[in-house]
Design goal:
Layout: H1 2-25, E1 68-73, H2 81-85, H3 88-98, E2 103-108, H4 119-125, E3 130-134, E4 151-153, H5 158-171, H6 174-181, E5 184-189, E6 195-199, E7 213-215, H7 221-226, E8 231-233, H8 240-246, E9 251-254, H9 256-261, E10 270-278, E11 284-289, H10 290-295, H11 298-333, E12 337-339, H12 343-352, H13 356-366, H14 371-383, H15 386-405
Parallel strand pairs: 1-2, 1-3, 7-8, 7-9, 10-12
Antiparallel strand pairs: 3-11, 4-10, 5-11, 6-9, 6-10
């Protein structure tokens, strides 16, 4: 009995063992995860700020300018800084650059298109688009502008003088009215420098100047000379060299810069220091024919005026330095002898000189022009500190540019 039970028990154990062995020999699938793989606790962080927007918009495309060539009538030589090399030439080079080469200038030098005494009429009818006007040649046509060429002995330097001219011409509307009545507009002025006298004869005293035939321009410079026995002669600037060469003149009066560039110092060797500056830049204006100006694209006008303002100021400062440099060059290269008259002689000259400002004021008041106010304002500006004059000139430019931009 025991044996039979024992065999049954052994059989059951063997069977269970076989099942276990078979079960172990079959691969079992990996248990399913009790949970899915955890999702990221946070998404990738969004940028805390967006990429910064540009602080300014992309620049607007440069305006496209119509291709054009403007003519410029230069009454004098191409080497003159006041008429070309340091004024109109660099001014219009800047305009051409800012118009991407579309607007260019064709100069006509040496009066080949318009001379000094033809400029106003020629500009009026459009012989040239741009020109170099000197108001001193048009005392009847432009009476208020006769003040431009009043000699001021010991007056302001070229830079300050050009600022004063800008202010006066802007504050008193008669000045622009006279120019615009002749179908022109004044774009900018070119500073002048103090005038001296160059003569062929050796000079030591004021008495030595008596009887000398000296070229002098305008209404008032001749009166300054005749007051001390000098004989003033009206000769166009372009004709002075030949007149000295032929003996028609003994010399001429203008700034040393222009004496040297015109080569008067090759004929006359005594430079007499007078230092009388034409108070309002001698009335040198770069003008445009008004019909031409009105027809220009507004953006082009804006560029021309912006560059004109820069050039007016730059040239004034240039003339301060050039006046000194050229006098030294005349001495070193042309062997010119500088003559400083005795102090007593200069005091005598000042005492004999007529009251030209008073004369101007009376003449203008008789014509209905506020001559007294103009003269008083000039005297005030001459005495004013330079910084204050610069500020007033900037305000004048703002007014003048707005008026010119409005012309259509």
């Amino acid at each position: 009995m025991f044996g039979k039970k024992h065999r049954i028990l052994v059989t059951i154990i063997l069977a269970l063992t076989l099942v276990a062995v078979i079960g172990c020999s079959s691969p079992t699938p990996a248990p399913a995860p009790t949970t899915q793989a955890p999702a990221p606790t946070t998404q990738a962080p969004a940028p805390t700020t967006q990429a910064p927007a540009p602080t300014t918009q992309a620049p607007a495309p440069s305006p496209t300018f119509k291709s054009m060539v403007l003519s410029y009538a230069n009454p004098l030589a191409a080497n003159q800084p006041q008429q070309w090399t340091e004024t109109v030439k660099p001014w219009f080079e800047a305009v051409t650059a800012r118009t991407n080469g579309a607007v260019t200038l064709r100069p006509y030098h040496d009066g080949s298109l318009l001379g000094l005494q033809e400029m106003a009429q020629g500009m009026k009818i459009g012989t040239a688009h741009l020109g170099n006007l000197q108001t001193s040649y048009y005392n009847t046509l432009l009476p208020a502008h006769t003040v431009d060429n009043i000699p001021y002995m010991g007056g302001p330097d070229p830079y300050k003088g050009s600022l004063i001219a800008r202010i006066i011409w802007s504050e008193f509307e008669i000045f622009n009215q006279e120019i615009e009545r002749e179908n022109m507009v004044n774009l900018f002025t070119a500073a002048t420098a103090p005038q001296d006298i160059i003569v062929k004869k050796e000079i030591k005293t004021l008495k030595d100047m008596e009887g000398q035939r000296i070229r002098a321009l305008g209404v008032y410079f001749p009166k300054l000379l005749s007051a001390v026995g000098i004989v003033p002669v009206a000769v166009s600037f372009a004709d002075v060299y030949e007149a000295i060469q032929r003996g028609v003149l003994d010399g001429g009066m203008t700034a040393p810069v222009f004496i040297h560039n015109a080569q008067w110092d090759k004929l006359a060797k005594y430079l007499v220091e007078v230092r009388a500056i034409a108070i309002l830049a001698s009335g040198i204006q770069i003008v445009a024919n008004m019909d031409t100006w009105k027809g220009l694209d507004p953006e082009l006008k804006k560029i021309m005026l912006e560059e004109a303002q820069k050039r007016e100021q730059t040239f004034g400062k240039f003339m301060n330095a050039e006046d000194v440099r050229v006098q030294q060059e005349m001495v070193d290269v042309e062997k010119v002898i500088k003559v400083k008259l005795p102090e007593a002689d200069m005091q005598e000259w000042v005492s004999k000189a007529p009251d030209v400002f008073g004369e101007y004021a009376r003449d203008m008041e008789a014509k209905g022009i506020p001559g007294n106010k103009i003269v008083d304002r000039i005297q005030e500006l001459v005495e004013m500190p330079l910084a204050d004059v610069e500020k007033l000139a900037g305000e004048a430019w703002t007014r003048d540019a707005a008026r010119l931009m409005a012309m259509k």
